[in-house]
Design goal:
Its main location: membrane. By secondary structure, the protein is an all-alpha fold. It has a domain of about 50 residues.
Length: about 90
């Protein structure tokens, strides 16, 4: 059967096949779990790091602050994009 941009008839068979199995619900469960756990861990670790840095008594506080702020300036894809464009 050939591919066409305009369908000849409307069919919802793909949705029926999709919702018959458990895979879609398991996938949503994993997504929600990862989102909730990742957000909670990020919040806890950020608070644990922010408190000592905000007091000003940490010996390497300025270095840690610089490393945290420096990494937030550049996105994850910036370096590979620069390497690709420069070549």
């Amino acid at each position: 059967m050939a591919f066409t941009f305009i369908p000849h008839s409307l069919s919802l068979a793909a949705y029926q096949i999709l919702f018959e199995g458990k895979q879609i619900f398991m996938s949503y469960g994993v997504t929600i779990f990862i989102t909730v756990v990742g957000t909670l861990l990020s919040l806890i670790l950020s608070a644990m790091m922010a408190h000592p840095l905000s007091t000003g008594r940490l010996k390497l506080g300025n270095t840690i602050n610089f490393l945290v702020y420096f990494t937030t300036l550049f996105g994850a894809g910036l370096v590979p994009s620069c390497l690709l464009i420069s070549k």
